[in-house]
Amino acid sequence: LRGRARGITSTDIARKAGVSQATVSRVLNGYEHVSDELRGRVLDVIERDGYAPNAIARGLVTRRTQLVGVIVADIVNPFYPELVEALAANLADRGLKMLFQNAGRGEEEEYVRVLLEHRVEGIIFTSALQSSSAVRRLVEQRLPVVLTNREVAGAACDTVVSDNVGGARAAASHLLELGHKRIALVRGYGGASTSDERERAFTERLGESGLVLPSEYRREGRFEHERAYGEVLRLLSLENPPTAIFCVNDLMAFAALNAARAAGLGVPRDLSVVGFDSIGMAGWESLSLTSVRQPIADIARSAVDLLNRRINDPERPIERRVFPSELMVRGTTSAPSRRPGSPESLGGAGGR
Amino acid sequence: LRGRARGITSTDIARKAGVSQATVSRVLNGYEHVSDELRGRVLDVIERDGYAPNAIARGLVTRRTQLVGVIVADIVNPFYPELVEALAANLADRGLKMLFQNAGRGEEEEYVRVLLEHRVEGIIFTSALQSSSAVRRLVEQRLPVVLTNREVAGAACDTVVSDNVGGARAAASHLLELGHKRIALVRGYGGASTSDERERAFTERLGESGLVLPSEYRREGRFEHERAYGEVLRLLSLENPPTAIFCVNDLMAFAALNAARAAGLGVPRDLSVVGFDSIGMAGWESLSLTSVRQPIADIARSAVDLLNRRINDPERPIERRVFPSELMVRGTTSAPSRRPGSPESLGGAGGR
């Protein structure tokens, strides 16, 4: 049986179907000049025969592979598994299968090439960078593409995001209303629309209340736990440490909680922390993170819906869907405490 | 360009390569009777031409798709993203690509069928059940299969696991040495070798110290946070609640921490908790979970190595590799406190 597992020759198919090799070739190559009866016999053999490469054969015949590429930046960031699970369920509902690529430290061109080699019918990007030339090129070449989570300015393709501006403004308003004046921000990396938009909106909202975010309060955590952890430790060891930190994703906010604990600080007593995403873990009693919720289920359903429409109707107008985000106030935010190092006594980190 | 994105006919290829359609058919069907020069011209067109289905064409020619199926039980359980990331990196190092299936609530037969349709060269199961008929059938049919994490008794295939028995015994010894006598266990679901082995070894080690695990102290958390959370709340509301809980994976142990907090209990003061896996999050200061470490990087490297060897040499002897596990003592375990509800005063949950 081993030979079959690796491929079936048209000789095998011809013998089993009782047709000529020329007929098998015509069927496999998608020619029209084959009777339905002969075509049926060939496809039956291919379908029934153990590991016959039926999806591939079917792909050659119907021009459909039913594969959809999904690219995520970092599957270990727990935001992405939630999105991937929701995408997989929605794709399965439509008979589509996910060819999954974890971008990690790899090159965009390389993982896009892999997806194309396997003839995906479309690609859902969950973490494209603004600089992505692959997205622009694929759109130009009219491969169905949907961007979720992160946008690429100027790419004429369907996009599903949540309201980053409203969410980040709500986070800022919440900290301002609690009375915080020394507020720091931990961003992702440059070129990620999520990080860029959240940072801009957050900073702008602070500015409307007369607060300027000093450069030493603006740190790059690269969306990673370890990197954010180190940056928060550095923030906390400043002469004037912040009393509140907004992190542009939950994973970095968890890192802030961990770093605060490592520095001997209580949250929210000594430090308030706000995240973005409000993934399942944010609601855990042990973490109880105040965070801006993205409606992941809605985003995934909408992304698959748009991709499916685009596959079936390449000429339809481009859509951009924006889902509302919502601040979930939990246990990591409170008013700043009045003690050495608090805004009322600038200049000393005392007690720390 | 759209047509190309969906498939290229042999007519197109023949025209561009300047060869006859019969030659293209011979190349696509893997016949030997084509000169290297003509074959090269055909493959060049297929390779170069936009979205040409080169992986598929190449698969038909070389009988290799370079695809490896990876099946995980639940990508939202943070153990699996760590394993998937490590598997993806090791596969990429060998030029192999991952066709990822999140089993979720789906049928095993269905997701295996999808992988086979796309002619994977092998499958890495990370969460096969003992009852898996698919694994046994694939092995019989000589598709290269590697089981990681969970084993299937009697399946003659390469397997990579960590030492579940040693790890669970170490967890039991630790709790016994701390002086716990009312120890509960939260298991996964039946038929998962990890859960079965850890439960058996843990129970056996308790038995060696004269401790019997009563049935009301044995709960099924199905490896899920929500389910385990409910079961731990029920354990904590027993007339004689346990002073320590061993959960057979970290996700359920985190649920135990959360449930304890919801019940107003301090960990480890009122309740000790031990997990299994020791994923990255277990080391977070906010969780600081005592847990049995599985060496995920070693397991992933070994699984890909074995699959690769099996693909290249189907006749090699079956290997089973067992990596040592190690108890990591962190902040969620201590001696039981002496207060109402502790072993010295059976009968009252007092103070709770």
Question: What does this 3D model show about the protein?
Answer:
The structure is a homodimer of 352-residue chains. With 352 residues, chain A is α/β, with parallel strands linked by helices. Helices cover 42% and strands 15% of the residues of chain A. Chain A is built from 13 helices and twelve strands. In chain A, the strands form two sheets. The first copy, chain A, has a six-stranded parallel β-sheet with strand order 2-1-3-4-5-11, sandwiched between helices. In chain A, strands 7-6-8-9-10-12 form a six-stranded mixed β-sheet, sandwiched between helices. In chain A, helix 9 runs parallel beside helix 10 and helix 11 packs across helix 12. The radius of gyration of chain A is 26 Å and the shape is elongated. The interface between A and B is large, with 66 and 66 residues.
Average pLDDT score of chain A: 87
Strand arrangement within the widest β-sheet of chain A reads 2-1-3-4-5-11
The tally of helices of chain A reads: 13
Radius of gyration of chain A: 26 Å
Give the assembly state of these chains.
homodimer
H/E element order of chain A: HHHHHEHEHEHEEHEHEHEHEEHEE
% residues in beta strands of chain A = 15-25%
- Main interface by residue count: A-B, 66 and 66 residues
> Which stretches of chain A are poorly predicted, pLDDT < 50 over at least 5 residues?
1-7, 50-61, 341-352
Helix content of chain A: 40-55%
- Look at the helices and sheets of chain A and give the structural class: alpha/beta
